[in-house]
Design a protein that fits this description.
Helix content: 10-25%
Low-confidence stretches: 1-30
Largest sheet: 8 strands, antiparallel
CATH class of the largest domain: Mainly Beta
Strand content: 25-35%
Structural class: alpha+beta
Mean pLDDT: 88
Number of helices: 6
Order of helices and strands: HEEEEEEEEHEHEHHEEH
Number of strands: 12
Radius of gyration: 20 Å
Shape: globular
CATH architecture of the largest domain: Sandwich
CATH superfamily of the largest domain: Immunoglobulins
Length: about 300
């Protein structure tokens, strides 16, 4: 199965450009605990898309995926269900893991998340069972598990870099492309990490994010940040400015694998190649959790719970 880049899969406004058709199940053995057994006799009724963000093995990970109606080429909202994984289709199935719809402004974009732990890196088969409109159907795909880049990961020490604030923009203009600007530019990240308090840092550009998830992520963190007065919240804007040349360079080369002067210094220091990304850092400056792609208030609260 060919892996699509995030640039190739921008499904804003209800338009999905996936030319994948659903297939009918060819049947299989009785449910014997294998992936094929779980799949046996179930009609393949939708497409599953997992963006090529890094997924780590041998730890509890939150994995984002989308459910797509292949006939209408549109996202499917309101589904409930569970997920299985296996090394091969005739191998033992791990699961089921429950999934939930991601809220906070992205409900209609077919966005879901599951939390799981897979024992080891490599390619894993993924089977999603979803109830949609009262009918149970399945969809499947494959995911790559393991390190893909040099972005900080859970267990790493947070990178203590000075970040733009309302008082010291540090050459970044604007320091926040959200309208109105978010409140998460009151303290520089390096100062937050020295404070002895937990910190949440999110990196992304609300105005220019190609997946259009950065805006909702910042909105959702902003909406619950006041619930945690003892936690610092910092937003790092991805781009150095909003000049046409900068935006054109960014939009011509998505962050996956991209390096260049259009990225803000703090984003470069954090080696960002996948955004939006949100880090949850404990009082000792250690990254405890990392959420890639869309998150809602539930995700933020769960992440903060791990560092407070």
């Amino acid at each position: 199965m060919a892996h699509l880049t995030r640039r190739e899969f921008i499904y804003a406004g209800g338009l999905v450009t996936l030319g994948v058709a659903a297939a009918c199940s060819s049947g299989g053995p009785a449910n014997d605990g294998t992936y094929g057994g779980v799949l046996s006799g179930r009609p393949l009724g939708f497409t599953v898309y997992v963006p090529p963000f890094e997924i780590l093995g041998d730890r509890e990970e939150r994995v984002f995926f989308a459910i797509i109606d292949p006939a209408a080429q549109t996202p499917v909202a309101g589904a409930t269900g569970r997920v299985w994984f296996a090394r091969e289709k005739n191998a033992e199935a791990f699961g089921p893991f429950a999934f939930r719809q991601i809220g906070g402004g992205v409900e209609q974009r077919g966005s879901y998340a599951t939390t799981l732990s897979l024992p080891g890196d490599g390619v894993w088969q993924m089977l999603v069972e979803a109830t949609i409109g009262g009918a149970a159907k399945v969809g499947e795909t494959a995911i790559q598990v393991g390190r893909k880049n040099d972005m900080p990961k859970p267990g790493d020490e947070a990178i203590a870099v000075a970040t733009p604030t309302v008082r010291k923009p540090r050459g970044v203009d604007p320091i926040c492309t959200r309208q109105p600007p978010c409140s998460m530019h009151e303290i520089s990240l390096d100062e937050a990490l020295k404070s002895g308090r937990p910190t949440v840092v999110t990196i992304g550009t609300p105005a220019f994010c190609q997946s259009r998830f950065c805006g909702p992520v910042v909105d959702n963190i902003e909406a619950v940040s006041s619930e945690f007065p003892d936690v610092h919240f910092v937003h790092i804007e991805l781009l150095i400015d909003d000049e046409a040349e900068t935006v054109q360079a960014y939009q011509g080369a998505p962050p996956q694998g991209f390096r260049g002067p259009v990225l803000a210094p703090a984003a470069q220091a954090w080696k960002v190649v996948e955004e939006p990304v949100t880090y949850y850092i404990d009082a000792d400056g250690v990254i405890v959790e990392r959420h890639l792609n869309a998150i809602d208030a539930t995700d933020v609260r769960q992440g903060v719970d791990q560092i407070t």
